[in-house]
Amino acid sequence: MKKLEQKALINSSPIGHKKAEKKLNVSLIYGIGFTLIIALFGFILAALPGLNHIGPLACAILLAMIYRQVFGYPERLRTGIQFSSKRLLRLAIILYGLKLNMAVVFHQGLPFLLRGAGTIIFSIVVLMIIAKWLKADLNLSFLLSVGTGICGAAAIAAVSPIVKAKDEDTAMGVGIIALVGTIFSIVYTLIIPLLSISPIDYGNWVGTSLHEIGHVALAAAPAGQDALTHALLAKLSRVFLLIPVCFILMLWMKKKGKLEGEAKFEFPWFLIGFIAMSFVGSYIIGHGILLSEKVMSDIAAVTSFLLTMSMIGLGFNISLNELRTKAIRPLIAILIASFLLSLLTYMLV
């Protein structure tokens, strides 16, 4: 008892405060550096044959998972790892707004917006019905439904703080969406010669049905520039709809919190940053107005790297036991829902 009292007394002294602050700063700096190193390895792995279709996010999460299972959670670096998983995640989402060309969406995108809204509604409703039928984990399934309907990992990362998802669910959702999106995009490229549709219709189908922007580009590029252009426009329209979806979820969570007596609702201010950067990128600095295309490309690369670092922080929270018990059924649910979405959108183009 006396030792505990002495320890508390030391911690409460000015010297104790300085030591604690120094320890916190070391944990913060080293932890951020640790996630940076693993992110670099994630990008290296993603460049290898066989892994290049999965992407750096999924590779980085896999590395973090393996590290935890072998060495355990690096507790001394927890402060920096959590900083990456929370603060850098929000910064990446804000910068992600620069990719959204709102001028094009407003000028040409009304049909695409309607199709995108249909894709989102279909994905959420159908995937959740299948998840309930399979008795899958509904929290993880909901993240997957949003990622399927909107823009993959970025959508999951954006809505997770709003719906107060667990870090392990967010990380598993990103990994699953990367895997499923990669499978479908490769299948799309293989069946192009078998389809009797024009490149423009093919691009519309790809942009309306696939998960990530990277998946859309991968599947559409082999069909030519017209297909790629229409595919990206259709996809960006779905990205734009991330904004109203997030605000709808905010209102739903606020109402749910009042009904259940939960803590005060925390407004996700990073969404305001996302919207602001969308306008800045579209009308002020983007597309060669103030910044060159190369600079915008460099910013996009930094955004991707920050998002990868944040996913590492989430990956450390994944337990393989939970992955086996929670992820199999949601994986089956998203595979079925994605197939039905692809089939329906192909019939409508």
Description of the molecule:
The chain has 349 residues and is mainly alpha-helical. The chain is 80% helix and 0% strand. It is built from 17 helices and no strands. Helix 9 crosses helix 15, helix 9 crosses helix 17 and helix 10 packs antiparallel against helix 17. The longest helix is centred in the N-terminal third of the chain and has 33 residues.
Chain-wise SSE layout:
Blueprint: H1 2-12, H2 14-46, H3 56-71, H4 78-96, H5 102-108, H6 110-134, H7 138-149, H8 153-163, H9 167-191, H10 199-209, H11 213-220, H12 225-240, H13 242-260, H14 270-284, H15 293-315, H16 320-326, H17 328-348
Helix pairs in contact: 1-2, 2-3, 2-4, 2-15, 3-9, 3-15, 4-14, 4-15, 5-6, 6-7, 6-12, 6-17, 7-8, 7-9, 7-17, 8-9, 8-13, 9-11, 9-15, 9-17, 10-11, 10-12, 10-17, 11-12
- The N- and C-terminal alpha carbons lie at a distance of 74 Å
Report the major sheet: none
Strand percent estimate: under 5%
Helix amount, in percent?
over 70%
Q: Can you count the helices? A: 17
* Category from helices, strands and their pairing: mainly alpha
Q: How would you sum up the global shape? A: globular
The gyration radius over C-alpha positions equals 21 Å
Strands, total number = 0
Point out poorly predicted stretches. Answer: 1-10, 258-265
| Element pattern in H and E | HHHHHHHHHHHHHHHHH
Compact overview of the structure:
By secondary structure, the protein is mainly alpha-helical.
Main attributes?
349 residues, mainly alpha, globular
